[in-house]
Amino acid sequence: MAKITITIDGKPIQTEEGQTILEVCRKNNIYIPTLCYHPVLEPYGACRLCTVEVTRHGWPSLHTACTHPAWDGLVVRTNTAEVRAVRKTLMELFLSRTPNVPLIQEMAAEYGVTEPSYPVEDPNEKCILCGLCVRVCNDMVKAHVLNFSSRGVDRKVGPPFMEKTRECIGCGACTIVCPTGAIEIVLQKNAIYAAKPLGPTAAIYVPSLQAVPRVPVIDTDSCIRFRQRDRSNGEIEDACGACQMLCEANAIDFTQQDEILELNVGAIVVATGFQMWDSTKLSQYSYGKSPNIITALEFERLSNAAGPTGGQILTADGVKPERVAIIHCVGSRDKNPNAHEYCSRICCMYSLKQAHLVRDKTHAEVYEFYMDMRAFGKGYEEFYERVQEEGVVMVRGRGAEVQVLPSGKLRVTGEDANLGKLVAVDVDMVVLSSAIEPPADAQKIAQLFGLSRTPDGWFAEAHPKLKPVETNTDGVFLAGAAQGPKDVPDTVAHAGAAASMAVALLNRGEVTISPQVAVVDEKFCSACKTCLNICPYAAISFIVEDNVARVNEALCKGCGTCVATCPAGAITGKHFTDDQIMAQIEGLFRVPELVEA
Amino acid sequence: MADLHRADVLVSCRHGRTPELVTALRDEIERRGLAEEIRVVETGCSGFCSVGPVITVRPEGHFYASVQPADVPELVEETLVKGRFVQRLAYKEAAGRKAITRYEDLPFYAKQMRIVLRNCGMIDPRSIDEYIAVGGYEALGKVLTSMTPDEVIAEIKKSGLRGRGGAGFHAGRKWEATRRAKGDIKYVIANGDEGDPGAFMDRALMEGDPHAIIEGMIIASYAVGSHQGYIYVRDEYPLAVENLTLAIQAAREYGLLGEDILGSGHSFDIRIVRGAGAFVCGESSALMQSLEGKVGEPRAKHVHATDRGLFDRPSCLNNVETLANVPQIILNGADWFASIGTERSKGTKAFCLVGKVRNPGLIEVPMGMTLKQIVNDIGGGPPKFRKVKAVQTGGPSGGCIPASMLDIPVDYESLTEAGSMMGSGGMIVLDDRTCMVDISRYFLEFLKEESCGKCAPCREGIKRMLEILVAMTNGTAKAGDLERLETLAKTVQTASLCGLGKSAPNPVLSTIRYFREEYEQHIKDGYCASGACRELTAYVIVDEKCKGCGLCIKVCPQEGISGEQKQPHYIDQAVCIKCGACYDVCRLDAIKIVPKAAVSLGGNGGNGHGTPAATPAKDKPGAAKGKA
After folding, report:
1. Which among A565, B83, B318, B556 is placed 20 to 30 Å from A589, CA to CA?
2. Of B493, B492, B494, nearest to B457 (Cα)?
């Protein structure tokens, strides 16, 4: 592209052809006020606020910077008295139209306009008719829902005939571009936004903020481009694409697909973690019946600075709660068949942390319903003491029930074992310290790697004390909560151990296996496949071509289960044959011949 | 083909009661068995609206004004059978009451120079043969057989023809830019979206001589290298659409449109697109949006339409009047055209002369004629007892030129300099009974309705300007409002997106410029000297002047004036609706316009009869008078 020079406010600027004056100014940090401009949309020239003085061929005149091309040799002045006078009058007009929009008030104040200069028709009017929503809906989203209707002073923005339309995909793009907050998405019950304030993330987001490299992903279920493509059966191919337009690194690739990689590896660390137990399984906690009953994980999202409220702890109505109850052991330490008998181990400490956060951010009263406080570990007990000092009310006893009162308040009842009384407290928000449990597909993983599971469902380690990261399958290790509930320091330690074991294995370059392995005498194998299922190490495979079972000697631990099971007696344990054992027994019981002295 | 006839009866125009008149004429002629020898021709607008419908009988040239269906038997009997002139139906000049019998002698036409309108009212617009008979399509033949496109453009440039839509851009330069623009597909567009209130030049042309526009378009298409043309006509002009459609069909049948026109290898066709009547669609970029099927809203025009216009392709958009000039320029030569008019404005311009003149109508005058000549010589001056106060030109986007400046010549530069503009050719004569504040308000009301609403200064600014003006006309204006109005007007002028917004403040700014004291009177004194702002006005009778003739009593629609004969009369302020009928009818100047406030305060304006103290509302006026 050809290089051009334009002079802005006396400063010559070298840039490339094909931009508008406004774009050049933005790139060079020269401030020009705008209301109807958006970098991903075609310039529109409706608000006229970006009016600047442009001199070409010696003739100065006023033009809008957003629509005027930056031609070589232009002299632009962005802040002359005339320009300011025009902008001032425009702000008078805008402020008189929308007197109570903070952005307009702010911009008007820049030009000394603090009061509406003309009669205000509707003090609640927020729309300045900049057309951003109309353009984003038509040009970007291609949903064609919003448009202008009527003409001139009657101009309005809305869907056809101002009726609800199914064409609206609820993408919310219009609310994002609207500079004055004039468009609101009204949530319908049970709609995807019903979980407000724990609304969805943006369609493009960084899944794990701590990850290295920190790469965003596109959620194709909520991305406008993919949604429109799916809705239209591929007809609308190029909706939105705002991220692509704005990404300076040109890193957005809509054609990328999920891939399955096949790798040959020497060791595997199973670190499949946990999932949250479904809190609706115990109806007494009323989870799902009020947006203000949330799980501890949802609370984490709520108090996250990148969360929907920017880190503020607010109820669904958007106000700070005055009272909050935290209920421990929800789904843990519970003999109900829908719950887990084990202790989830992490809840006590995170519940204390959350109590601390609530106190710190909202000064609300906090009630902790706990059975007993499991604050083992370095500094944990001290933290427990500190939280108590912060004024958190500790109620010793399981929170028995949460009721949603007609007023919307929540009543938590339980037995306070210290007082020996039933207690009840009405709160604005309930946080359930829900159990953690093995992932739903843990059994699949167990089968894949030949892992066994303890009765509570977690993957079993090879030895509870001596081999905490190894499994019964050589070369497969466990890390973190896959093996059982763990907090972060324990998980990191456990994972470190697993990694070391894997590295130690790999570094050797070869493996030593026990010579005591099972072997199939293929002549006698009747191909019944009984051995395949009973092998705890998945060491036996069936060879279809030869119609026989065969033992992988590297996997076989020589346990002998298959030897004992094989109906045809085709499997023998090397160095553990019947003959050898019999010989040993015979040897054991042979009466020693007396040797004549 | 037209057969030979003994006489043609030209009836103009086709609006109002004319259809009945035509039927009556045909029936009468049929009844007398003259149908074979006499033809009744329905022509387009002859321009002389004030005396329409008019009938011209050719070849004699008899001219009859204001003919009613009832006059038909006598007219046929006398003129068509006996060959005599019916004096009763002659046009009588207002001043001398002198009867004028022949078209050629009419003073209304004598001062005009009809180039564009030469066929309007003269031929049947639905007959291509008649157009050809008067020299139509001869220019096209000349262009296609003996001129290169560059020669055509050179000729138009040399003629100095400028856009008749208002802005006055040189047509030749526009054609040249379109010809030079890159692109295989180019468009020629005729702008027939005439939206100014009170303007009907384009309408008359499209209805009365559609072939002239089509011929101009074909020549333009040849010059710029286009094969597709559009005529954008507002749907409120059904007859224009109809006549243009017929004309296009006829031209296609004659091989003047379509493939390989007249064997020249040049192909061109025209489509008519009907606009929905938005004023802003007369603006070129909005018009093209509308042509594309989108909402007619203007867009920023830093890249000219000649490079990227309709469907982003080079487009040459001309007003229909501009195009209708083209065949005449080709036929008679650029020098001929350039010899008419002023230094920088060549040729003639059609105007709709309306308002307070005796002969309102459609006129065409050479550029450079003064406003005074137009108003007085062609328009016949203001009606009796009235004085011209100002002339408003250029429609809602134009401005008012005060009576003191009526000597300025009508050309693009002079009008712009005077704060008005040529516009498409509206010309409204205002008399001393017109309030300039009220006129501004009227035009802004129109513009408020017609602003598309896209850009903020136009949408919000016009609305606020109108609010201030309404306050001025109803007496609620505050000190400083005039200054606010001026600041606002200047911002709307500089900051608006399109021509509509940029020119919308013209009526306000030009009237403030020439009639500032009138605005100040409205604000400071609550007084409207013309009486047009009813909420500021009271009419009172000046005792010394009133001779008690009773004329005002007769005209008062409210029966609000009373008084003995030969005694000063009295106006009951409680019932007066300020219609001004009494004021207009009083020959003695005995009725005076005073500020309403002055009356209710028992002020200085009248004879005391108007004061509330003396007005026991619905009591007998006589009794009230006695008390006074």
Report:
1. A565
2. B492
CATH class of this structure's domain B436-525: mainly alpha
Contacts of A174 (CB under 8 A, 6+ apart): A132, A133, A136, A137, A146, A183
Amino acid letter for position B214:
I
% of chain A exceeding 90 in pLDDT: 69
- Residue A119: list chain B partners with CB under 8 A: 467
User: Look-up: residue for tokens 């294995």?
Assistant: A505
Look at domain B7-106 and name its CATH class.
Answer: alpha beta
Average pLDDT over residues A51-72: 92
Give residue-wise pLDDT tens across range B295-340: 889 988 788 899 999 999 999 999 999 999 999 999 999 999 999 9
CA distance A372 to B172: 95
Complex ipTM value: 0.86
CATH topology of domain A276-437: FAD/NAD(P)-binding domain (3.50.50)
**Cα-Cα-Cα-Cα dihedral sign, residues A550, A553, A559, A560:** positive
Is domain A3-79 classified as CATH 1.10.238.10? no
pLDDT in tens, A425-445: 999 999 999 999 999 999 999
Q: Which residues of B are less than 8 Å from A117 in CB distance?
A: 484
Query: Judged by CB atoms within 8 Å, which residues 476-535 of B form the interface with A?
Result: 484, 487-488, 491, 494-497
Tens of pLDDT, residue by residue over B431-474, are 988 999 999 999 999 999 999 999 999 999 999 999 999 999 99
Query: CA end-to-end span of chain B, whole Å?
Result: 80
Q: Note the pLDDT of residue A450.
A: 84
Task: Check pLDDT > 60 for residue B430.
Answer: yes
Please tell me the predicted confidence (pLDDT) of residue B627: 35
Residue B72 φ/ψ region, left for φ over 0, alpha for ψ in the -120 to 50 degree band, beta for the rest: alpha
- The CATH topology of domain A518-587 is Alpha-Beta Plaits (3.30.70)
Chain A residue with minimum CA distance to B447: A152
Domain residues of chain B, as ranges? 7-106, 128-338, 350-430, 436-525, 534-627
**Topology of the domain covering B128-338:** Rossmann fold (3.40.50)
B595-604: long-range contacts at Cβ-Cβ below 8 A with a sequence spacing of 24 or more?
B595/B525, B595/B526, B595/B527, B595/B528, B595/B536, B595/B537, B595/B538, B596/B475, B596/B526, B596/B535, B596/B536, B596/B537, B596/B538, B597/B475, B597/B526, B598/B527, B598/B538, B599/B538, B599/B540, B599/B573, B600/B538, B600/B573
Q: What are phi and psi of A470, to 5 degrees?
A: -80, 160
The architecture in CATH of the region B534-627 reads: 2-Layer Sandwich (3.30)
Each domain of chain A, given as residue ranges in start order, spans: 3-79, 131-252, 276-437, 442-508, 518-587
Asked if A131 and B461 come within 8 Å (Cβ–Cβ), the reply is no
**Which pTM does this prediction carry?**
0.75
Q: What is the CATH number of domain B350-430?
A: 3.10.20.600
